[in-house]
Amino acid sequence: MTAPLDSAAVAQYLLDHPHFFEEHAGLLGEVKLSSPLTGRAVSLQERQMEVMRAKYNALELRMAELMRRAEENNAIANRFHGWTQQLLRADAPGARPDAVAQGLVKHFMVPQASLRLWNLAAEYADAPFSSGVSDDVRLFTNSLRAPYCGANKDFEAVRWLGEADGIRSTALIPLRAGGSAFGLLVLGSPDAERFNAAMATDFLVHIGETASTALAPLKA
After folding, report:
1. Cα 79 to chain centroid, rounded
2. 68 against 164, higher pLDDT
3. Distance (Å, rounded) from C-alpha 97 to C-alpha 152?
4. Structural contact between residues 129 and 117, judged by C-beta atoms closer than 8 angstroms
5. Strands (E), the chain
6. CATH architecture of 92-218
7. What Cα–Cα distance (Å) separates residue 66 from each residue in 53, 71, 92?
């Protein structure tokens, strides 16, 4: 008695004999399959077309997503370029802190931004950007291994924004030179989701590195 073939054996046979349907072309119209799209029986050819159409639609969606991300990345690159240009136009070192903060507000549409610096040259001792920095803020900034991005947990530094009560989310970006922190950049928003803990901080790191380079000449 001949042993019945199981589905795996049939599938393997078809894989091993790619010319089977060329030799038995009539089967393409006779074999009926159940279509998950319509629920009716369709020929093998029709089912193959449905599979190919589904794959094509999936590729279209994937391409649309890639194009959307490319447009977003291009927009971010243009904003970063505009911000960098603003930093370069601030010839005097003392004008750069304002250029850093206000440039982020202008080019990245951040609702509020501010910063404070310490360990600066003597001529900047009384500048607004070097006042009101407590030891706690300095210790906290030194402890940040990466920018903080998330809810405003009543951080002391957020009060530099002036309207801290309305700030629901914040990004705190340490400014470093020579391995040690000499400043803290604070971004704030009334939108709780503008800066959330799930966001990647890579771009904030780039902002911090660029700002640190621009502001390092103010150090003592």
Report:
1. 14
2. 68
3. 23
4. yes
5. 32-34, 41-43, 112-117, 148-151, 169-177, 180-189
6. 2-Layer Sandwich (3.30)
7. 20, 9, 42
Q: Which of 41-55, 162-176, 204-218 has the highest mean pLDDT?
A: 204-218
CA gap 140, 52 in Å, rounded: 57
Report strand pairing: 112-117 vs 148-151.
unpaired
Cα(37)–Cα(34) distance, integer angstroms: 9
Position 94 scores a pLDDT of 94
The residue type of 57 is N
Beta bridge partners of 189: 169
Structure tokens at 186: 């604070």
Report pTM. 0.74
- Mark residue 176 as left, alpha or beta (left: phi above 0; alpha: psi -120 to 50; beta: remaining): beta
CB 112 within 8 A of CB 95: no
Asked if 161 contacts 186 with a C-beta cutoff of 8 angstroms, the reply is yes
Angle made by CA atoms 175, 179, 180, in degrees to the nearest 5: 60
Helix, strand or coil, per DSSP, at residue 16? helix
Structure tokens at 126: 């009384």
pLDDT for residue 27: 65
Other CB atoms within 10 Å distance of the CB of residue 63: 10
Cα-flanking dihedrals φ and ψ of residue 53, to 5°? -65, -40
pLDDT in tens, 126-154: 999 999 899 999 999 999 999 999 999 99
